[in-house]
Amino acid sequence: MKTILTGIRVNSELTMGNFLGALLPMTRLANKYSDDHHVNIFVADLHTIIAEQDGTLQDNLVMLIKMYLAAGLKVNENVHIYRQSYVPATSEMTWILNCVATMGELGRMIQYKEKGRGEDSCNVGIFDYPILMATDILLFDGNYIPVGQDQFQHIELTRDIAQRVNHRFGKDIFTIPEKTSVQAKFMGTDDGIRIRDLVNPEKKMSKSAKAANSKIMMTDDPKAAAKKIMSATTDSFGEIKYDMKERPGISNLLQIEALVNDKPLEEVLNEWEGKTNYGDLKKQVADSVEKMLAEFHEKLNKISNGDVFELMEKGEKYANKKANAKLYELQRAFQLR
Ligand code: TYM
Question: Active-site positions?
């Protein structure tokens, strides 16, 4: 059976970028494929601590799993939910792969350049983060990795490292995850999902944006979220057209409308392209987001912490068994066993 796998950090509440770029696509793919695929959904708690925490990490991680359930995730015996740090093989394998990856490779990672800015005070975890991510994928023979476009570079790096190890030892220790072009197709897009900042649509929607109107948090009041959509930056071309490069604001709204309603983008474009009233489109997207959030919050409130812990503990049993076997194979190759 092939494996679909993804992780999300929990350093604060989720943005609609996290939700539409990863959590919701993962949920839909899980529901579509879990009869004959493993589906691994984990909380990337070790990745979370690259930033100092404020005491809410444990609450946030329970909330993350609740969000999958509220988004409609159906759990069967092939769906495995776990906390990354509860699978200790993760840390061990990361060390071994640290001895395979190069400084040059990691130094080229965009996320490191943005977050670390080459400063001496940048913690080593921020630099090494893609190796931890590669481990998450390779420990479980991940084939399909539903992530937003900002993580594609890390998937390509994972492929390089896996191929290097297999080549060095002359055997297929690791499954090579699919290329990012294939990943994007698997998620039903041409080149990956990148939800934009509502005020500065050249940028991705990010937790760290300062202006409250820039981002929609999944815990936002639905009416307040709708207002943010109504005030989103668009353009002055005067005609609705999907063009992420030249018209990222309006294109972002078209993309959000498609994802929220689980419609193909083409269908939304057929309906809106060529029209001239931006306000009508904004109203439509605002309504879609408001409705989605209201339903989502209602479901979220019905899920108990107990349900979440039960799922995680079950998933961790499966995950440790599988991960320990893969780690052992790697340790043997490196003459550690
Ligand atoms: P993280 O926690 O930064 O983000 C979680 C997911 O949300 C996606 N995302 C977006 N997608 C579209 N538009 C946006 N504006 C946007 N902002 C965030 C991210 O691409 C990601 O999919 N390293 C990962 C977590 C991770 C992981 C893994 C993922 C750890 N190990 C193994 C897959 C496989 C991260 O920090 O994502």
Answer: 115, 204, 207
Distance 150 CA to ligand 1 centre (A): 7
22 CA distance to ligand 1 centroid (A)? 7
> Over the stretch 28-37, which tens digit does the pLDDT of each residue have?
999 999 999 9
Residue 334 amino acid letter: F
Q: Is the CB of 145 under 6 A from ligand 1?
A: yes
- Judging by DSSP bridges, how do beta strands 79-83 and 37-43 pair with one another? parallel
Owning domain of residue 180: 2-188+304-333
Going by alpha carbons, the residue nearest to atom 14 of ligand 1 is: 17
C-beta separation of 97 from 137 below 8 A: no
Note whether 313 and 289 are same-domain residues: no
List, edge to edge, every strand of the sheet that includes 37-43.
2-8, 37-43, 79-83
Pair 124, 81 in one domain? yes
- C-beta of 130 in contact with ligand 1 (< 6 A): no
Q: Is the dihedral of CA 246, 213, 14, 71 positive or negative?
A: negative
Q: Is residue 206 part of a domain?
A: no
- Answer yes or no: is the C-beta of 137 below 6 A from any ligand 1 atom: yes
For the stretch 10-31, pLDDT in tens is 977 899 999 999 999 999 999 9
Distance CA 76, CA 15 (A): 27
How many domains in the chain?
A: 2
How many Cα atoms within 13 Å fall on the side-chain side of residue 195? 29
State if pTM tops 0.85: yes
Ligand 1 mean position, distance from CA 99 (Å): 25
219 phi, psi to nearest 5 deg: -95, 0
The pLDDT value recorded for residue 207 is 86
